[in-house]
Amino acid sequence: MKTATSITGTFPAIKQIILVLIPLVMIFFITPGAIAQNKLLNYNIMLGNSKIGSINMSKHDSLNLSFIKTSCQAQKRLIFLYTLTEKQEAFFEKGMLVSSHVFRKVNSSVKVDQYTQFSQNYYTVRKGKTSQKVMVKGIFSNQSTLYFAEPVDMKQVYSDVYAAFLNIEKVSDGVYKLILPDGNVNYYYYTNGVCSKVHIERTLFTVEFILVK
Q1: Domain definitions of the chain by residue range
Q2: pLDDT tens for residues 46-101?
Q3: 3-state secondary structure string, the chain?
Q4: Quick one: 112 exposed, middle or buried, by C-beta within 10 A (0-12, 13-18, 19+)?
């Protein structure tokens, strides 16, 4: 003869099931908003008062991973029409750069097609059939990260194009100077921790990247 199951006897079992299910349900609903995060930045490229192009940047953060993607296109006529196309990608894990790619083309001529890859205790930079080693244990910021966060207390930042660390100095509140290998400088301006303008001054021209609000 079967003994009927007591209702009070089932409560501990039901309670245990609920305790297991609640965290799973919370993770299911919370994960998309709390763990994954996307940031978008759009800049106009200005030569004097004329817009000559645009830069579109996106940063996707998820758990310990971060992916930054940059797309740039500009046109300028100097007797002939020159079209610059540039794409960059940078992948970080636990805050450290693990791989990046820079591709730059002027009209139909490829000027830069360079990969940086972390392996063991160093980085390998590959350009065409040649490669070189950058003997550092970790890169935690590159030029693309300068757009999404103010480089407070930062002394150097890695350049994926030059495959080298560049010195960066604070000029005043919210203004920083990045020193390039050729002696030229870029100035980064910040508003609420995000880069709102980049001032690029060269011998023959001055260009600014202005954040679109």
Answers
A1: 36-211
A2: 999 999 999 999 999 998 999 999 999 999 887 888 899 999 999 999 999 999 99
A3: CCCCCCHHHHHHHHHHHHHHHHHHHHHHHHHHHHCEEEEEEEEEEEECCEEEEEEEEEEEEECCEEEEEEEEEEEEEECEEEEEEEEEEEEEECCEEEEEEEEEEECCEEEEEEEEEEECCEEEEEECCEEEEECCCCCCCEHHHHHCCCCCCCCEEEECCCCEEEEEEEEECCEEEEECCCCCEEEEEEECCEEEEEEEECCCCEEEEEECC
A4: middle
Token couple for 208: 């600014």
Which residue, chain included where needed, has tokens 């490229």?
A: 45
Residue 147 CA to residue 151 CA, distance in Å, equals 9
Q: Going by C-beta distance under 8 Å and a sequence separation of 6 or more, which residues neighbour residue 97?
A: 90, 91, 116, 118, 123, 138, 139, 140, 142, 158
